[in-house]
Amino acid sequence: MPEGLFERPAISRLRRNHALEHATIHLLSARQPRTTLIGRSDPRGFFLFGDASTQAVADAAQEALARLRAGERRLAIHPNCGTNILTAGLLGGSAAFAVLAGSGNGRGRLSRLPLAIAATAVGLVIAQPLGTALQRSVTTQADPKGLRILEVRTWRRGRTTLHRVITTG
């Protein structure tokens, strides 16, 4: 993406909120290790699915923001980010497709199956560092700049808890 595109207000806010989402998940996961947390960012903040109290999410988000401001850039990167999953799917699937695409009939494809599996594995190995690099340079912005947390809202329905962290700046 061109450099100027990253600085457009909505994209910049999305990338900074994505970094704050990851940092918040890192801190909550350290405090509640057996809790599954799923996040989704947008330009207005982020959603967090997981069994945590509103206060725990608010405290973790405030600390995450402070630590990002203090330069803890590693908190902006998360190994379970959708960027990593998408990168792995695209590389692995593309590698298999490339091997199998020109195979002609069914028997030709079957004979290429071991090569397709190997190509997929290579794609998945490459995807790990590539996904991290994409997070670092494209999908997150570790410097929160003027980002501030306005509010944390929580909804509960049955066993599902949804938090909304609303930001500005």
Characterise this structure.
This protein has 169 residues and is of the alpha+beta class. It has 2 domains: 3-77 and 140-168, Threonyl-tRNA Synthetase, Chain A, domain 2 (2-Layer Sandwich); 82-135, no CATH class. 57% of the residues lie in helices and 17% in strands. It has helices at residues 3-6, 9-31, 54-69, 82-100, 106-139; strands at residues 38-42, 45-49, 148-157, 160-168. The protein has a 4-stranded antiparallel beta sheet with strand order 1-2-4-3, with helices on one face. The radius of gyration is 19 Å and the shape is elongated. The two termini are 23 Å apart. The mean pLDDT is 93.
Supply the CATH superfamily name of the largest domain. Threonyl-trna Synthetase, Chain A, domain 2
Could you report the average pLDDT, rounded to the nearest whole number?
A: 93
Oligomeric state: single chain
CATH class of the largest domain: Alpha Beta
Q: Which range does the strand content fall in?
A: 15-25%
CATH architecture classification name of the largest domain: 2-Layer Sandwich
Question: SS-based structural class?
Answer: alpha+beta
Largest sheet: 4 strands, antiparallel
What is the CATH topology classification name of the largest domain? Threonyl-tRNA Synthetase, Chain A, domain 2
Low confidence ranges: none
Q: Kindly report the spatial arrangement of strands forming the biggest sheet.
A: 1-2-4-3
Task: Write down the overall geometry.
Answer: elongated
Determine the N-to-C terminus distance: 23 Å
How many separate helices? Answer: 5
Please write the string of helix (H) and strand (E) elements: HHEEHHHEE
Number of strands: 4
